[in-house]
Amino acid sequence: MSNVSTKQHLWALCKRDFALAYRQRAELLQPLMFFLMVVTLFPLAIGPNPQTLQLVSGAIVWVAAILSLLMGLDKLFRDDFLDGSLEQLILGPVPLYLNVLVKVLTHWLITIVPLLLLSPLLALFLNMTIDMYKVLIVTLLLGTPTISLIGAIGVALTVGLQRSGVLLALLLIPLFIPLLIFATSAIDSAAMNLPFRFQLGIMLSLLLFALAAAPAAIAYSLKVSQN
How does it sit in the membrane (predicted)? Predict the structure, then answer.
């Protein structure tokens, strides 16, 4: 297939996923509403002390982001598997790793952009400083694509299983712990006016490694699941 045809195919796949997400707006809003509920319930449980909220604000947002992303990941390949279009992607002329990379990127845009738009309100609610908020945005931009890429491997491995959500969470949550540690450490360092480039550098390295390795791993896992 020519480069032009490949680009047209990938663009059409991206538009298709956006259209399907728009038709399923209720399901699309579930992770977002879950994210909002978790972030707003934590201050009620901890108490209104501004210093305490500021101390745990980074951890609250990141735990809520990970859990909300896990809610949406389960459907990444599920509909394609059920209607047979996943098999067509596997057998088609366009390399499967390109197809899954586009699908993961589209899923990330659909899921994360609303969270980023809500983040200023959440930062104000959790008494974050400007420096903490800036670092929070950077960590989300670096960390959430890594979560989507690594999570897609688990989704691909369990796509043929019924009610795989709990199994998926058990498989993936331990893998996200390093990201959670480095992200919250960077936010805490920003709160104390300490250097945080090391943590961001580690997160960037993880993202680049996931971009290089995850698409091939996802493609292989989908082929295994289809057999």
Answer: Multi-pass membrane protein
Amino acid letter, 214: A
Q: What is the pLDDT of residues 151-169, one digit of tens each?
A: 888 888 887 666 666 677 7
pLDDT single digits (tens) 101-124: 988 998 888 888 888 888 777 877
Are 203 and 179 in contact, with CB atoms under 8 Å apart? yes
Per-residue pLDDT tens digits for 18-63: 888 777 777 777 888 888 888 888 878 887 777 888 888 888 889 8
Query: CA nearest 74: which of 126, 133, 148, 131?
Result: 148
Distance CA 97, CA 140 (A): 24
CA angle 72, 133, 151 (to 5 degrees): 25
Query: What's the full length of the chain, in residues?
Result: 227
pLDDT band for position 204 (50/70/90)?
A: very high
- φ and ψ at 55, to 5 degrees? -65, -35
Can you list the positions of beta strands (E) in 37-77?
none
Cα separation, 208 vs 218, whole angstroms: 16
Residue holding tokens 């796949």?
Answer: 13
Q: Name residue 203's amino acid.
A: M
Amino acid identity at 98: L
Q: Considering only CA atoms, which of 221, 36, 217, 16 is closest in space to residue 110?
A: 16
CA proximity to 32, closest of 122, 146, 106: 122
8 Å CB contact between 70 and 148: no
